[in-house]
Amino acid sequence: MKKNVRWKDILMLQAVFLIYSASSVVSKFASGKELFSLEFILFYGLDVLILGIYALIWQQVIKKFELSVAYANKAVTLIWALVWGIFIFHEKITVFKVAGILLVMAGIFILNSEEGKES
C-alpha cells in the first residue's frame, strides 16, 4: 500500500524518535539511584510516562507511513543517543561513532527518498 508522505510527516516521525530516545536518558539516570528509592521510582515513573506519550504519538504517525519504512527510521535514535551522550553524560565522540551514525543517516535518507519516488 503506497502512502503520500510529506516532509512534515518525516519530521514528525523523527520527533517521535526524539521522544523515544528521552526514555533512555531517564532510564540511565534511574540506574544510578538506589533500587526502589523515591528518586528511582520517580525516574522510572517518568520513563513510563515518556513511553506512553511515545506510544500514543507513534500510533498516529504510522498511519502516514508503511510500517516497514516507519520502523526502519527508528534507527535515528542512535543519533539522539550520541547527542544525549555528549551533552548530558559528557561522553566522547569517536570516529567509529560518527561513521556509524553517518551510515545510518544515509540508509534512512535512501529509504525515505525511495518511498517518495514510489508514491
What would a concise description of this structure say?
With 119 residues, the chain is an all-alpha fold. Helix content is 76%, strand content 0%.
Beta percentage is under 5%
The structural class is: mainly alpha
Annotation, overall tally of beta strands: 0
Tell me the major beta sheet. Answer: none
* Secondary-structure element order, N to C: HHHHH
Total domains:
1
Can you give keywords for this protein?
119 residues
Element layout with pairings:
Elements: H1 7-31, H2 38-61, H3 67-72, H4 77-87, H5 95-118
Helix pairs in contact: 1-2, 1-4
Task: Give your account of this protein's structure.
By secondary structure, this protein is mainly alpha-helical. It has one domain (7-118). 76% of the residues lie in helices and 0% in strands. The protein is built from five helices and no strands. It has helices at 7-31, 38-61, 67-72, 77-87, 95-118. α1 (7-31) packs across α4 (77-87). The N and C termini lie close together (10 Å). The model has no long low-confidence stretch (mean pLDDT 88).
